[in-house]
């Protein structure tokens, strides 16, 4: 099946393509299509906005990820606003901003959340979610991945996500888990749809 990957984030494209390799889907890029403004207040709402816009415009199933980092000492911020944290323009600047916010904080626990939505042109949605808990370092380590990866050490690991390969990150990550649930659901073709609003 042809599926549009509705993201402008090159790191997500890499991870989604690697994870879904075994499904035999033909993954297509946005082809210049702009993504809608992320006006939602939840990952689910924003993922649906992105996936639906692409599915309707392209007339193909479209997959979107909305994700974020929830920091315990910041009461769960930046969460859905992770891509614009502190109005900083780049991953490096956002990481520095986060480090500044956490300077001296003893509680460095955080978790990543990913909601992956596969939307069909008729408006049907499949939703998958994954989470990853860990701690934030006091300085970046590693060159791989994207976003906050250089600061994040998953529970039970010694390396940051930026010190792992795409496959190693996928095996444990929030996005990897959400995509594994999608793969499982599609093991025997598209999953049966539940009756909407049925008693
Ligand atoms: P699209 O909307 O085009 O997909 P985006 O980067 O704007 O790309 P989001 O709105 O979902 O995506 O923002 C998620 C942000 O959360 C992302 O920009 C990173 O800063 C952070 N993030 C999410 N998943 C991450 C991961 O696996 N590793 C590091 N940072 C991540």
UniProtKB/TrEMBL annotation:
The keyword Transport does not apply. Mg(2+) binds at residues 37, 66. Keywords: Hydrolase, Magnesium, Metal-binding, Nucleotide metabolism, Nucleotide-binding. Its EC number is 3.6.1.66. Its cofactor is Mg(2+). Gene3D superfamilies: 3.90.950.10. The active site is at residue 66. InterPro entries: dITP/XTP_pyrophosphatase, ITPase-like_fam, RdgB/HAM1. Pyrophosphatase that catalyzes the hydrolysis of nucleoside triphosphates to their monophosphate derivatives, with a high preference for the non-canonical purine nucleotides XTP (xanthosine triphosphate), dITP (deoxyinosine triphosphate) and ITP. Seems to function as a house-cleaning enzyme that removes non-canonical purine nucleotides from the nucleotide pool, thus preventing their incorporation into DNA/RNA and avoiding chromosomal lesions. This is dITP/XTP pyrophosphatase. It comes from Deinococcus aluminii.
């Amino acid at each position: 099946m042809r599926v549009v990957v509705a993201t402008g984030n090159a790191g997500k494209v890499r991870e989604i393509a690697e994870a879904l390799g075994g499904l035999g889907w033909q993954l297509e890029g946005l082809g210049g299509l702009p993504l809608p403004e992320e006006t939602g207040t939840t990952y689910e709402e924003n993922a649906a906005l992105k996936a639906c816009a692409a599915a309707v415009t392209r007339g193909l199933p479209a997959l979107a990820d909305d994700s974020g980092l929830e920091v315990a000492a910041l009461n769960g911020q930046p969460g859905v606003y992770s891509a614009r944290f502190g109005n900083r323009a780049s991953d490096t600047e956002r990481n520095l901003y986060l480090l500044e916010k956490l300077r001296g904080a003893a509680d460095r626990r955080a978790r990543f959340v990913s909601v992956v939505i596969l939307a069909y042109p008729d408006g049907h949605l499949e939703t998958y979610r994954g989470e990853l808990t860990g701690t934030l370092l006091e300085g970046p380590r590693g060159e791989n991945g994207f976003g906050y990866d250089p600061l994040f050490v998953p529970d039970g690991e010694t390396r940051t996500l930026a010190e792992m390969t795409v496959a190693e990150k996928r095996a444990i990550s929030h996005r990897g888990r959400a995509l594994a649930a999608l793969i499982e659901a599609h093991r025997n073709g598209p999953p049966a749809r539940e009756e909407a609003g049925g008693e």
